[in-house]
Amino acid sequence: MPRQFRNSTRGSSVLLGSVLLIGLVVVVAAAVGAAAFDAADSSPTPTRPTALSLSVSGDTLSLVHEGGAPLDVDSLAVRISVDGEPLAHQPPVPFFSASGFRPGPTGPFNAAADSRWTVGETATLELAGTNDPDIEPGATVTVRVFDGDTPVAALEARAS
Length: 160
Description:
The chain is elongated. It is built from one helix and nine strands; from the N terminus they run H-E-E-E-E-E-E-E-E-E. It is of the alpha+beta class and about 160 residues long. A hairpin with a 2-residue loop joins strand 1 and strand 2. The N and C termini lie far apart (about 100 Å).
């Protein structure tokens, strides 16, 4: 006697559940990947209401606090690049003598100065010949200032 098959939904519910689970994993992975790509592609933008300016003359960088709240120099980090290439030695802030820089920065970047950087004050530092790359006339110098992990300013100037 021939065997008769009945329609069963047991296998199809497992298959449907697997397809939904795979679809959910693909959607979550795409969202995480897009967010990671977007975060890696964008530079942090300043979030504090502080105005700073930058000028570059030879190997000397001058940053002026032009407006906004005072900054605590002890919590600042400064990152410098020349024509898009980061300096081999980044300045610790504050400092007096540091690898890659001439001793005796002036203003609030000097370790002996008041740790509050207020409106009107200028902080200067000078690259030593042991730092790389050199600042050539016409080079674009970028300085990013952070208060801890929080971006304070992203400044750019042409060297004279």
